[in-house]
Amino acid sequence: MTSASPMHHRLKRWPGWIALIFVAVGFLAVGSTRDTGPLDPGDRVDAISRRIACPVCDGESVYESRNPASEAIRSAVREAVASGTVDDDGIIADIADAYGAQVLLVPRATGFDALVWALPVTAGVIGVVALWFAFRRWREESALVGPAEEDDYRIVAAAREQLASDDD
Questions:
Q1: Number of H helices, E strands in the chain
Q2: What number is the average pLDDT over the span 36-60?
Q3: Whole-number Å distance between alpha carbons of 8 and 154
Q4: DSSP string, 14-43
Q5: What is the mean pLDDT of residues 112-123?
Q6: Which of the listed residues 106, 125, 153 is the one where a domain comes to its end?
Q7: Do residues 58 and 45 lie in contact, with contact meaning Cβ atoms separated by under 8 Å?
Q8: How confident is the model at residue 1 (pLDDT cuts 50, 70, 90)?
Q9: Is the confidence at residue 46, as pLDDT, over 80?
Q10: Residue 68 belongs to domain spanning
Q11: Predicted TM-score (pTM) of this structure
Q12: Distance between terminal CA atoms of the chain?
């Protein structure tokens, strides 16, 4: 029986990768075109309030908190939405300027805040790529070494016996 060539194995992998690419592109297309924006001013106030942390409470958004500071922020958001002169990001930026950046539950996409989001993702991608190269190199090196022979088994058995006698 003959073994399949390496080229045959490579060709068998391509349909899976192509299908994966199509699925990823499909998800990105649906995710980027889907309209999830608030429909009315009340929904806008709720959506903005969920993105702002209570300046007094620990771990609560302005939407969840009933603290007077959160009530004041919700009231400011309600007024800004009613005026219609500022978009959602502008309202959040105004509140962050007034209370400090620590009230942002979702960091800004610029400056240092963007770096906080980008560095872990970049480190993860670099780590995955490095592991891929390492596994590939190890696989190629193990193919060069070939299967274990009888002498290899004897060396391992002798080393085990030596360890066992050293432990006693």
A1: 6, 0
A2: 83
A3: 37
A4: HHHHHHHHHHHHHHHHHHHH-----SSHHH
A5: 81
A6: 106
A7: no
A8: very low
A9: yes
A10: 41-106
A11: 0.48
A12: 50
Long-range contacts of 72-80 (CB under 8 A, 24+ apart): 73/49, 73/99, 73/103, 74/45, 74/49, 77/45, 77/48, 77/49, 77/52, 78/45
Amino acid at 78: R
Looking at the DSSP assignment, which residues form a beta bridge with residue 104?
52
Q: Is residue 3 part of a domain?
A: no
Residue 131: predicted pLDDT: 95
Place of tokens 């029986």: 1
Total residues belonging to the chain: 168
Segment 19-44 mean pLDDT:
75
Cβ-based neighbours of 54, under 8 Å, separated by 6 or more: 60, 61, 62, 64, 65, 67, 69, 70, 73, 103
Handedness of CA 158, 162, 167, 168 (dihedral sign): positive
Rounded Cα distance between 1 and 147, Å, is: 19
- The single residue listed with the structure tokens 């400056």 is 111
Examine the domain organization and report whether 56 and 102 are in the same domain.
yes
The two structure tokens encoding residue 100: 């400090």
Region 60-70: mean pLDDT is: 89
